[in-house]
Amino acid sequence: MSDFTFQDAENRGRLLNNEAWSDVLIQAMPYFKQWCGKIVVVKYGGNAMLNDELKNAVMKDLVLLNTIGVKVVLVHGGGPEINKMLEKVGKESRFVNGLRYTDKETMEVVQMVLTGKINKELAGALLQEGGRAVGLSGIDSGLLRAKKIQGGDDLGLVGEVTEVHPEIIQHLLDDEYIPVISTVALGEVGDELCYNINADTAAAKIAVALKAEKFVQLTNVPGVLKNMDDPLSLIARIPMPTVPQLIEQGVINGGMIPKVECCMIALRGGVPRTHIIDGRVPHSLLLEMFSDRGVGTMIY
């Protein structure tokens, strides 16, 4: 057999020979057994979805996981696509403390883009890679119920999840499908409105409801860094009790704070492992799950 070349190795002019390739498979084998039959919830971020080549790599990873028996749930955002559509219809995007203000017109666009365009594109991409996928929104089967966020600045129809009814997801997983979920939620009983939900938070709560073994956020950063300007300063493992101290010290700051807080939601709800990994790295999900070295930051 001819030597097999990984893309990243090829870029460095190195060749992975048969012996090294065998070592990779041997190292991965225990992880195949470990994750078979376990539920893994992956949140796929809007900014990590912008590159088609990387998106295809993520779809391949998810299909591979599904094929070997890992029960994968994909929860997605779509901020950049929503911005584009609002611009097309002449509606200005408005943000309050980093969160999208969502009036009724904006909510219509959010539903159209998330549940119509992006959700079906991702489900279709998984099918094209040979997987079995079903697109859902938080409204379907009453999966997510929410109420308007109270207190602080008014965000319009931005909600917080009050209930997760995961039965529809569980049925799909039992039938070996990959559920693809957009985070638009139905109001509580008696509330006929729909709400725009932060995808990171929704994914964490879905992971808790499913009793997932792992919650992974695919983002556009390497993970938690000691020095924001130095990718080599990555913190690979963070015990949950040390998170408040790292926030106080400014190590965890800015947009990383809400991502870490979502990890904390999952951990407090019983999910054993949470991860923030770089969706810009091809096959980062496989590297995290099937290698000793892992990637990104694990908060446990």
Which features does this protein show?
alpha/beta; 300 residues
Structural class of the secondary structure composition? alpha/beta
In helices, the fraction of residues equals: 25-40%
Strand order, biggest sheet? 5-8-2-1-11-13-14-12
In DSSP terms, counting alpha (H) and pi (I) runs of 4 or more, how many helices?
A: 10
Topology:
Elements: H1 7-11, H2 18-35, E1 39-44, H3 52-67, E2 71-76, H4 79-88, E3 95-96, E4 99-100, H5 104-128, E5 133-137, E6 144-148, E7 159-164, H6 167-174, E8 178-182, E9 184-187, E10 194-196, H7 199-209, E11 214-219, E12 237-238, H8 243-248, H9 256-268, E13 273-278, H10 284-290, E14 297-299
Parallel strand pairs: 1-2, 1-11, 2-8, 5-8, 6-9, 11-13, 12-14
Antiparallel strand pairs: 3-4, 6-7, 9-10, 13-14
Task: Write a structural description.
The chain is an alpha/beta fold and 300 residues long. It contains ten helices and 14 strands. The protein has an eight-stranded mixed β-sheet with strand order 5-8-2-1-11-13-14-12, with helices on both faces. It has a four-stranded mixed β-sheet with strand order 7-6-9-10. A two-stranded antiparallel ribbon has the order 3-4. Strand 9 and strand 10 form a beta hairpin. The N terminus is likely disordered.
How is this structure best summarized?
This protein is α/β, with parallel strands linked by helices and 300 residues long. 40% of the residues lie in helices and 20% in strands.
